[in-house]
C-alpha cells in the first residue's frame, strides 16, 4: 500500500511540473544573412505574434535581442512595404523551461508600422524559447 502511494505521488509530481511550464521546441532557425531570418510562410492564426498568449519564439540564450531584430527584419507590410519598428519594452510574464529565476520569462513588445498604415501594431516576441517562425497574419515577408 505504501509503495503504491509513493509511486502515485512521484508520478503526480512529475506530471504536474511538466504541465505548468512551456517546453521549448528548440527549433533551429535559418538565416538569410546575419541580420535576417529566412521566413517562408505567413501564419493563418490571427493571434500568432499579435497577442502575449501566442508570441513569436526566436529563442537563443546567446543571441536573443539580435534574433528579435532578425525576425522583424524579415517582415514587410501586407503589400511588400518596408516596415519600421521600435522596442516599446518588456511585458507579459509567461511560463518557460528556459527561465533563469522561477518559471517565467518576460516577452518583448515591438511596435511596427509601414508607410500608409493607419496605426502601429504590437508584435510580442519570446527571445528565450524557440518555435517555428512565420510572419504574423496581416504582414508580408520581405523580398529576398
Look at the helices and sheets and give the structural class: alpha+beta
Q: What is the H/E order?
A: HEEEHEEEEE
For the record, the count of structural domains works out to 1
Uncertain regions spanning at least 5 consecutive residues: 5-23
The rough form would be described as globular
Q: How many distinct helices? A: 2
| Mean of residue pLDDT values | 86
Strand content: 25-35%
Main β-sheet description: 4 strands, mixed
Number of E-state strands: 8
Q: Strands of the biggest beta sheet: in what spatial order?
A: 3-7-6-5
Distance between the termini: 65 Å
Proportion of helical residues = 10-25%
What radius of gyration results from the CA coordinates? Answer: 18 Å
Salient structural properties:
20% helix; alpha+beta; 4-stranded mixed beta sheet; globular
Topology:
Elements: H1 2-20, E1 31-33, E2 36-37, E3 56-57, H2 64-73, E4 75-76, E5 83-95, E6 104-114, E7 121-126, E8 140-141
Parallel strand pairs: 3-7
Antiparallel strand pairs: 1-2, 4-8, 5-6, 6-7
Question: What is the compact description of this entry?
Answer:
This protein is an alpha+beta fold. 20% of the residues lie in helices and 28% in strands. It has one domain (29-141).
Describe what this molecule looks like in 3D.
With 144 residues, the chain is of the alpha+beta class. The protein has one domain. The protein has two helices and eight strands; from the N terminus they run αβββαβββββ. A four-stranded mixed sheet has the order 3-7-6-5, with helices on one face. Strands 1-2 form a two-stranded antiparallel sheet. It has a two-stranded antiparallel sheet with strand order 4-8. The protein starts with a helix and ends with a strand.
Amino acid at each position: 500500500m505504501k509503495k503504491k502511494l509513493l509511486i502515485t505521488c512521484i508520478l503526480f509530481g512529475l506530471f504536474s511540473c511538466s504541465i505548468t511550464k512551456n517546453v521549448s521546441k528548440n527549433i533551429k532557425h535559418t538565416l538569410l544573412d546575419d541580420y535576417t531570418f529566412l521566413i517562408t510562410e505567413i501564419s493563418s492564426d490571427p493571434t500568432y505574434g499579435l497577442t502575449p498568449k501566442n508570441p513569436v519564439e526566436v529563442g537563443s540564450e546567446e543571441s536573443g535581442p539580435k534574433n528579435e531584430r532578425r525576425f522583424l527584419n524579415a517582415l514587410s507590410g501586407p503589400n511588400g512595404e518596408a516596415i519600421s519598428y521600435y522596442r516599446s519594452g518588456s511585458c507579459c510574464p509567461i511560463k518557460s523551461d528556459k527561465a533563469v529565476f522561477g518559471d517565467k520569462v518576460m516577452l518583448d513588445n515591438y511596435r511596427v508600422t509601414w508607410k500608409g498604415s493607419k496605426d502601429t501594431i504590437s508584435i510580442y516576441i519570446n527571445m528565450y524559447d524557440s518555435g517555428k517562425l512565420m510572419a504574423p497574419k496581416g504582414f508580408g515577408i520581405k523580398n529576398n
